[in-house]
Amino acid sequence: MPTVSASPCTFELALPDLALARGGVVRQHRSRGWWWSREGDTPENPQQNIPTVLLIHALTGSAQAGGTDGWWAPLIGPGHALDPAKYRLVCFNNLGSCYGSSGPGVEGFPAASTVDLTCLDISRALLLSLDKLGIGRVHLTTGGSLGGMVTLTLAALSPERFERVLPLATTLAASAWVVGWNHVARQILRLDPGYPNNVGRGLEIARQLAILTYRAEPGLEADQPRSGSPKSPAATYPVQSYLEHQGRKLRNRFAVQAYELQLAAMDHHDLFQPLPGETQPAISRVRASALVVDVDSDQLFTPAQATVLVEHLRQAGSQVERTTVNSIHGHDAFLIEWETLEPILIRALQLHSPL
Predict the structure, then answer these.
(1) Distance between CA atoms of 140 and 330, rounded to whole angstroms?
(2) Closest to 159 measured CA to CA, from 311, 29, 278
(3) Distance between CA 272 and CA 270 in Å, rounded?
(4) Does 27 lie in the same domain as 44?
(5) Which of 266, 283, 302 is the last residue of a domain?
(6) pLDDT tens digit sequence for 89-111
(7) Candidates 123, 145, 289, 318; catalytic one
(8) Last residue of some domain: 243, 266, 289?
(9) Residue 331 designated active-site
């Protein structure tokens, strides 16, 4: 059995300039990554013949997928589905985010008021990062929500490179419902007196709004039950305290300009449209085997949207399986339902590769 590195590591890559799909150029382009693999397999010296699993974070995530405070930590590590003794696990901070990759306020990144980010841009930055590391084929690519959008976009951009995809709680194209919620969040941000450079309460409230769309009523009722009435005018119901806590957490860890750019990337996601220079829908280019995962209580990316995704992947010639996660927690089930997700990941890793 190969020896596992004692702990994951982080690294940075200097990348070529990147022209953005909707105008502007990222110069002095940098990408921050997270890596966990076998002993001796490092970003500086990747070994051959170790299957790579590319993990893609959601809207406000970071490259830290596993280890302490990792967003998928319960699924990653020795003995888990994503075992670094078996797979090279790699995750990058999204372009335009605020956890080390090129983004607002970083030298070389276009001024926030002049740039409009897309999933194509995030995906192209990831391809540049893989190129820099010398990683050709990717055994499995997976992510949820915005991370699922990027997963699908990568498989369309470079169909010969991605063998398997596991898109979770996502869609082929952002619906009017999703764009509408993002629009309201954006307007809340812009009402903050400190916008755009010192947004505080506006970011808190935008996050509170988002949390309500990420969850479902049964889950909130179970986790934050009403349990009577507050005993004084200054007291709050549990769900109010929960939302205030979530708002403060994001305010303390995320930049508003990065938040707006990640929302924009989600809004512009549309794989029914052709890639630049192409004539057919982008989704028709996908060749990877796919396991599509939806959540039965998801308000943002519904099971009906997953059905459409499956149909179009099959029309493209992909081998497709589908699993619906039954959860009271809504969209965020892909960050909560660990016991359900573990066997789903194991299955995705075992899909037949068409490449």
Answers:
(1) 25
(2) 278
(3) 5
(4) yes
(5) 266
(6) 999 999 999 999 999 999 999 99
(7) 145
(8) 266
(9) yes
Residues whose CB is less than 8 angstroms from the CB of residue 76 and which lie 6 or more positions away in sequence, other chains included:
36, 65, 66, 67, 70, 82, 84, 89
User: What number of other Cβ atoms are within 10 A of residue 49's Cβ?
Assistant: 4
Residue for token digits 């590391």? 133
Which domain, by its residues, includes 134? Answer: 9-174+271-349
Q: What is the pLDDT of residues 235-284, one digit of tens each?
A: 789 999 999 999 999 999 999 999 999 999 999 999 999 999 999 999 99
In this predicted structure, what is the pLDDT of residue 1?
A: 58
pLDDT of residue 229: 80
Q: Is 294 a domain residue?
A: yes
Nearest residue to 55 (alpha-carbon basis) of 135, 165, 160: 165
- Measured distance CA(173)–CA(180) in Å, rounded: 14
63-85 pLDDT per residue, tens: 999 998 999 999 999 999 999 99
User: Is residue 298 annotated as a catalytic residue, yes or no?
Assistant: yes
Residue 355, in any domain of the structure: no
Give residue 280's region: left, alpha or beta (phi > 0; psi -120 to 50).
beta
Three-state secondary structure call for residue 98: coil
The model's pLDDT over 201-221, given as tens digits with 9 standing for 90+, comes to: 999 999 999 999 999 999 999
- Selecting among 121, 192, 294, 298, the annotated active-site residue is 298
- Catalytic residue selected from 29, 139, 329, 331: 331
CA 320, CA 209: separation in Å to the nearest integer? Answer: 34
Mean pLDDT for the chain overall: 96
Same domain, 50 and 167: yes
In angstroms, the CA 170 to CA 331 distance is 9
